[in-house]
Specification:
Length: 291
């Protein structure tokens, strides 16, 4: 599926390039301009043979419009004068320039062919690369003298798509791991035998966001209610505080202190403060004899 996406993007780029070449051919005013354009599109290794043929057809048609003298029928040729000889010599010089351009054209075509082969090979490798490997291949691509700039740009596009795919895979893997851990913790919360055991599960979520932690908190609260634990919102003193304040003796207070450990961690300091205050009262006889 990822490869198909790459091919779709590449096809769109090529179609846009063909349109651009045709517009340049139509706008050309001289044969020299046309030859330069042909050299450019012929050296592009991403174009197929059919696409090259299509552009060459446009090239020849425009050349016929610009330099119609080259297409004068043989029957229209008159007696050769000195001016005609001079014109023929100029034509020979022009033909020589065209031949030189053609030599350059075929040289560029060979370079483009080699570049296209390298690009194709690298493209398949890029599909399998890790993030670190992508960083390394970027340097190699731009330092490779056999790759033409167009192919380097294409490979840059493939590398960027691969980076996005890797990021998406990493996000999916992280989400999968989170869901597995969440399911396990919720199951453990539902089977907790004591409030302390249920509340202790929160310590496994220190790296989670508040939104990620919310389902587990809900599961813990549900289990606390099932265990008949007073799970009032933080900040509202539970009934345990009243029991501590009215503890008749130190033995009862010790039992209540153990119960404090099963309450929400955020409210435990406040309850322990009440324990210490009541213990002081009982030990100093301010509320009856200490036991």
């Amino acid at each position: 599926q990822l490869y198909a996406k790459f091919k779709q993007i590449e096809a769109e780029e090529i179609n846009a390039l063909i349109v651009q070449f045709k517009e340049q051919i139509t706008a050309a005013q001289t044969a020299q301009e046309l030859i330069k354009i042909r050299t450019t599109f012929a050296s592009n290794g991403t174009l197929s043979d059919e696409q090259h043929e299509d552009l060459n057809t446009c090239f020849n048609a425009r050349l016929a419009e610009i330099d119609s003298e080259q297409y004068v029928p043989q029957s229209n040729i008159e007696t050769i004068s000195q001016d005609d000889v001079t014109a023929s010599e100029d034509s020979f010089v022009s033909d020589s320039k065209i031949n030189n351009a053609n030599d350059s054209f075929f040289g560029d075509t060979e370079k483009s062919r080699i570049s296209a082969e390298i690009k194709q090979e690298l493209m398949y490798k890029i599909f399998q690369m890790s993030a670190d490997e992508l960083d390394a291949i970027v340097v190699k691509i731009h330092n490779n003298p056999k790759l033409v700039s167009t192919h380097k740009n294409h490979l840059d596009g493939h590398i960027e798509l691969r980076r996005k795919a890797l990021a998406k895979e990493a996000d999916a893997e992280a989400e999968k791991k989170y869901q597995e851990n969440l399911t396990d913790l919720i199951n453990r919360a539902s089977q907790a035998q004591t409030p302390a055991e249920a509340n202790a599960l929160v310590r496994y979520t220190t790296q989670w966001t508040e939104e990620q932690r919310k389902p587990l908190i809900n599961a813990i609260s549900k289990r606390l209610n099932e265990l008949n634990v007073d799970a009032q919102p933080i900040g509202q003193p539970p009934s345990l505080m009243v029991q501590i304040q009215n503890a008749p003796d130190l033995t009862t207070l010790d039992v209540l202190e153990i119960d404090v450990g099963s309450r929400h961690p955020d409210i435990q300091p406040k309850l322990m403060g009440c324990i210490r205050a009541r213990r002081f009262e009982l030990e100093n006889g301010s509320d009856g004899d200490a036991q």
